[in-house]
Amino acid sequence: MQNGLILSIFFLLILVFLGIVLTSMTSVLFVAVIFTPKEVVKEIVKIMNAKADDKVVDLGSGDGRVLIEMVKGVKVKAFGYDISPIMVLYSKLNRFLALGFKSPITFDVVSLFDLKYNEYDIIYCNLNAKIMSRLSSKFTKQLSGTKVFSYIYPIEGKKPYKKHILSNKQALFEYRY
User: Fold this and answer.
1) Coil, strand or helix at 171
2) Quick check: 139 and 173 in contact, CB under 8 A?
3) How far apart are the C-alpha atoms of 47 and 58, rounded to whole Å?
4) Which of 8, 53, 71, 81 could form a disulfide with 110 if both were Cys (CB 3.0 to 4.6 A apart)?
5) Do residues 161 and 174 touch, judged by C-beta distance below 8 A?
6) pLDDT by residue (tens digit) across 60-88?
7) Rounded to whole angstroms, how far apart are CA atoms 101 and 17?
8) Domain extents for the chain?
9) For residue 8, which phi and psi values (nearest 5 degrees)?
10) DSSP letter (8 states) at residue 121
11) What is the CATH number of domain 32-176?
């Protein structure tokens, strides 16, 4: 019995290691994995000022840290989308460890270019300038009454409602549609 448990833990550790390696290779070869720094997550959540029952989406949600922090304080309907299945699994594990079985956060593997954005009240992005540029036209066509927050990279051709300078000296751009 003990040998089976030890063997299971060993294989689980190998799978986690392989997941990290695959994610690293994917980020080098295809799309960079960019995490919102932990030291500014609470600050960003406070600035976004979500209200109960808001529908919030994190585009390229990575490990889920922004949404996990948000639902600790406000009961929003939260959605995290990422193109990497490994990151989605990792975010689901983080969600479970932080919030247990009952959680208002849904994480899923989805292309950001296939989403309908008009159903969300708040959109958070920590994406590179190229992806933000591609999303700009979708936001303009689909959004009305939505707040969009972009960490570091502005939305090309759109004047920010406000530019917040965070404690790490990086910008959080706020847009209103």
Assistant:
1) strand
2) no
3) 15
4) 81
5) yes
6) 999 999 999 999 988 899 999 999 998 99
7) 24
8) 1-30, 32-176
9) -65, -45
10) S
11) 3.40.50.150
